Amino acid sequence: MTAKRTPTRADGDVAGTRVEQKERTRQRLIDAALALIGGGSGFTSLSLREITRQAGLAPAAFYRHFRDLDELGLALVEMGGVTLRRLLREARRDGIPPTDMLRGSVQIYRRFVADRSEVFRFIAGERGGGSRAIRNAIRTEESHFASEMAQDFRALGTLPELSSATLQMICGLVVTTMLNAASDILDLPAGQTQQERELIENFVRQLRVIFLGAARWRES
Amino acid sequence: MTAKRTPTRADGDVAGTRVEQKERTRQRLIDAALALIGGGSGFTSLSLREITRQAGLAPAAFYRHFRDLDELGLALVEMGGVTLRRLLREARRDGIPPTDMLRGSVQIYRRFVADRSEVFRFIAGERGGGSRAIRNAIRTEESHFASEMAQDFRALGTLPELSSATLQMICGLVVTTMLNAASDILDLPAGQTQQERELIENFVRQLRVIFLGAARWRES
DNA sequence: TAGTACAGTGAACGTATGTTCACTGAAAGC
DNA sequence: GCTTTCAGTGAACATACGTTCACTGTACTA
Lengths: 220, 220
Hints:
Two copies of one chain form a homodimer. Chain A is elongated and about 60 Å long. The first copy, chain A, is mainly α. Chain A starts with 17 loop residues before the first helix and ends with a helix. Chain A contains eight helices and no strands. At the A-B interface, α5, α6, α7 and α8 of A face α5, α6, α7 and α8 of B. The structure holds a DNA duplex.
């Protein structure tokens, strides 16, 4: 019976200031949605009640944090953006693998997708379907990601002869190819190492084609 | 009061044999779903009742044709496959545009997507999200499409030095890039010719990168 | 021509949904 | 210390849903 300072739901939930507590349950809703998506449900077919149930809240509590499901979706998109940024940072930190840079990056990516499968499932799923607002938000996030990737290429001296616009275009192509591969990876039946190897190999080769083309590109 | 041979619903529905009539209402259900998707609904968030309502049928009639919504979805995927085949046939029929072959093909594609927007909206939407069964069916259809495209390249003598496997891999990349572009095209606010031009230009350039890379590819 | 098969109906069911409302109790502000 | 604020509650609502069932009337079959 110690520490009963939390308002109502205290589950190892060592409260704090009011706004902190609010932020914490907001995060609980986000996590609940992600957990359900990880269960294979697809964000579009999630219901408000399902989410609050998973979060251990009354349905009405939802409205204290989001106007509707779309707004929750936008929060998920933002979290997806953060995830992508972290991916780049991690890749940067590890530096360029000495020999096979492309395959190395793909390995990092593969692990990353597997580790945060719910986030990638959400992005891959809502990128084409779902609501217009969410789709556009994802597009924006993708484009930011592509820009950041282009910056990294500049910093690394990769493809130095390309204009910024062209580099951006190429990174856009890389990003869509990545997200497409993510969708494939996530649908792999568990434990199918052979199938996974082929898939990854295909992915690597597609990227190789792109970079070959990029190296040969001449600004018209 | 002439011609009252149709069972119940006769709306310019000049019946025929029994199986023909059944096939016709089956098609009505498919069309209804497509119409609703065209209205911006997204297949995943369609309900059985919504579809039968749109088709002018009682809800229970649905079960005479499909076990559940997923089965209807698979029928839509098949129709998507037919659409893609038709696209290739049309591109073949028009032959290779004399000068700018790539931009020409993209123009054909752009028109095609606009003309059958509902089908492409469905494919682009369910490709990443939706149910596992539908996703896999779409993947199969995509891969068939890629194979057929590879065959066409072979017949045209494009990229003759590439192995079949490599050509297939590259066509796969082209297909995902196409479908991705379709999603973008369909989300364009109507009448934004400038924005559309940029989008198409970007699409053309991405394909150019791919083909440049393909031409430079050397089998390891 | 009598009998069967079966596409489509309409009513009924149980269940789940989104949203509202007055409420409670603890933290924050004075 | 008294008052205000507000995150979260629980009950209630109207609505929509998927699915079932016995049924009807027509096209086929023998």
